[in-house]
Design a protein that fits this description.
It is built from no helices and nine strands. It is mostly beta strands and 127 residues long. The chain has a single domain (27-119), classed as Jelly Rolls. A hairpin with a 2-residue loop joins β3 and β4.
Length: 127
């Protein structure tokens, strides 16, 4: 049974077992990363879940998302249409918002786990 966040009952996201799959070859930027995801249900019209990526790099096209890194370290590179890019270090405690359509490259240095919120109407693109 999938864990669900129920009012009055905590879920320890650090102890969840997330089934992993290899990042598709077209998205792999470096190494052989895998990703895992676990839905925790909905909250006020938002999908709530936990996502994890092992070391390596992957390219992604983002959806609307708010996330909090709970473990690990990574560099997130946001690619702009101007050809410029912004590199951001991520670690435990990093809170970040991504907009739909942002092109990113995730380079994970130490397995990264995050808790995310996305609009329920968004297709869950996490791989």
């Amino acid at each position: 049974m999938d864990p669900e966040l129920i009012p009055g009952s905590p879920v320890n996201v650090g102890e969840l077992t997330l089934p992993h799959e290899a990042v598709p070859p077209g998205q792999t930027a470096s190494g052989a990363p895998t990703t895992g995801i676990q839905s925790l249900g909905t909250f006020s019209g938002l999908e709530l879940g936990t996502w994890e990526m092992t070391t390596g790099g992957m390219h992604d096209l983002e959806v609307e998302e708010l996330f909090l890194v709970t473990a690990g370290r990574a560099t997130l590179e946001i690619h702009y249409d101007t050809g410029e890019a912004k590199r951001l270090p991520l670690g435990p405690g990093a809170l970040m918002r991504l907009n739909a359509g942002m092109r990113t490259t995730w380079t994970v240095h130490e397995t990264l786990r995050k808790v995310y919120l996305t609009p329920s109407s968004e297709p869950n693109k996490h791989t």
